[in-house]
Amino acid sequence: MSKAEREIFDKSGYTSIIYRTPGTCRVVKSFLPECIEKHFSTEQKVYERFSAHDHPPSILKYYGVAADDPAGLVLELAERRNLYSCLWDHEMGQMRPVEPKLLYKWAYQAATALDFAHSLGVIHFDIHCVNFVLDQNLELKVADWAGASIDGSISYSCYRTTHSLLCVQGKGSRPSVQSEIFAFGSALHNMNVGHDIFPELDYEKDHNEIVRRLRNQEFPDTSNFSVLGDVTLSCWRLQYESMQDVVDTVKADLKSYLACRRQPSDKAGKMTYEGT
After folding, report:
1. DSSP per-residue codes, 32-100
2. 88: how many CB neighbours lie within 10 A of its CB?
3. What is the pTM (predicted TM-score) of this model?
4. Helix, strand, coil percent content, the chain, rounded in steps of 5
5. pLDDT exceeding 70 applies to what percent of the chain?
6. What is the pLDDT of residues 101-121, one digit of tens each?
7. What CA–CA distance (Å, rounded) separates 113 from 143?
8. What is the mean pLDDT of residues 28-46?
9. How many C-alpha atoms does 218 have within 13 Å on its Cβ side?
10. Rounded to whole angstroms, how far apart are CA atoms 115 and 126?
């Protein structure tokens, strides 16, 4: 099936256009000509490495290279697109309420996927809720490995400033498990409030101020989060040695949360396991 016969599913990326193949639960991630040599080859290597092992369901299924598109990767469809867009109600200009158990599930799924990748020598290098995608059942998948570092290789991506430990560490720093954990803390913040840290600052104009705050550990207050506030802060403070430590903490945190619950929560209008 040619590109012309496919439905454009997402064209917001910098490296590719994603097409949905009608009548299937698959998409083709077709890389732009200028991104084939670096980004296509990187993501193909990552998915082939993942597929050679028993990867968790929070990583998209990979079905190989498209027969009619030598620069297209066939991947599992994530019907609800990215988490960043799902969290924010653009019409109301506010975050959609999310059930705490769902926040725990997303945090666990994302951390599990990243820990698996790290165990195989893959560093994502662009952890952000825009790269966490959701299927029709609100199951989270970590996507977009086109800028990953494999076995310490050069990466062709970078963390957003609000998620970057490397900006704090300065010139010469390299992506690592610790930089991934730091970025994951900013992603957890986004899950809880629906936007990146320091929304009063401009991403480009106030770059130096964002870096200064992070360097001085002037992190946003997480004490009012319904859940995962302590985990978020611990990620920023680099109090975990591995993403597996984050997975274990999220599991323990959820267990405590469920044990302390005495009354059913009001789910009206909230995103739940069953849907929105």
Report:
1. PGGGIIIIIHHHHHHHHHHHTTT--TTB--EEEE-TT-TTEEEEE--TT-BHHHHHEETTTTEEPPB-H
2. 17
3. 0.91
4. 40, 15, 45
5. 89
6. 999 999 999 999 999 999 999
7. 10
8. 96
9. 8
10. 15
